[in-house]
Amino acid sequence: MSRADYFLRRLLLVIPTFLGITLLCFAITQFVPGGPVDQLMLRMHGMGAAGGESSGAGVQGAVASQEAAEQERQAFREHFGFNQPLLKRYWKWLWAERCGMLTRSYKFSNKTAWEMISQRFPVSLIFGLTSFLLAYLVCIPLGVAKALRHGNPFDMASSVIVFIGYAIPVFALGMLLKMLFCGTVENLWDIFPATGFHSQTFEGMTFLQKCRDILWHMLLPVICYMSGSFAMLTLLMKNSLLEQINADYIRTVYAKGGSSARALWCHALRNALVPIATGFGGVLTVMFAGSVIIERVFEIPGMGNLSMEAIVGRDYPVFMGVLALTSILGLLGNIFSDFCYVIIDPRIHFS
């Protein structure tokens, strides 16, 4: 099979895979308890979505007749379209509502799912793309340095630091950084802002001041973003390069009079990057991966917070919009990873 045929087949497989993912999740959201119909019924009977109203209101709701309650439920189901067949509702979501992007939010009826996503998307994109690029720009050179100094004090000291950072959970690292550097604990440093993406006076700043303000807010969250993949990428790069350095073809380079620099930089490094290319496709989903916990800790208005709020609040149009966007970018990201394989090593063939 030629590479063109392989990539064409992969692109065609995106369609049924995307349909399968979204149809399954769409069906689950229609039948999971606690949906918008149940929440409206609770509010109508004075109990509130969180069950925080007075017991007297709860008693009044409890004594309502079963017949009236059923009529209310059917009216709400018709309002949200839940009385229609599942496949008909899914087709409407997929085609007429453009994968739910034109569907109005249950929580904010004056906004569509796309309007809410487009407000949060740039923030998560900046955070995710920055952390993705920094992770590879730091981990690849560090992995090469560790491989060239395998077993010496630099290798051991850097391994200790890398594993300590990897062992700390992301939320714990975020809270620790806030405690140490954001003034949340008395008598400790108050250097960085504890929450948000920019300051309240952001609109009145000059362009350079805005850039500095955003970078100042991003520093600690980006460290948390990178911590999860930092150790894995560094050690993967180191071990991959060590394996290539000890390969037979490197000995052949030396036997033909090639220098160490040529053997390393022109031959071993390129082949060592092949396993690293597995994560290149993640550049298309960097605004979603690992962002929920970090955005909750630092109160960042990004896609992670939006998806969590949509799930907890049963705002299914927004959740399905985020899911559709995540799914298509993830599927295309896998194809992009395969494409990177071919660019790095043209000898790779797909069967």
Brief synopsis:
By secondary structure, the chain is mainly α.
**What percentage of residues falls in helices of 4 or more residues?**
over 70%
Radius of gyration: 26 Å
The biggest beta sheet reads:
none
Arithmetic mean pLDDT: 82
Total helices: the number is 14
Structural class label: mainly alpha
Strand and helix order? HHHHHHHHHHHHHH
Description of the structure:
The chain has 351 residues and is mostly helical. The model is unreliable at 48-64 (pLDDT under 50). 70% of the residues lie in helices and 0% in strands. It has 14 helices and no strands. Helix 2 crosses helix 4 (66-80), helix 7 crosses helix 9 and helix 12 (291-298) crosses helix 13. It has helices at residues 3-31, 36-44, 55-62, 66-80, 86-96, 113-148, 153-167, 170-181, 207-245, 248-255, 260-276, 291-298, 303-312, 316-344. The N and C termini lie close together (6 Å).
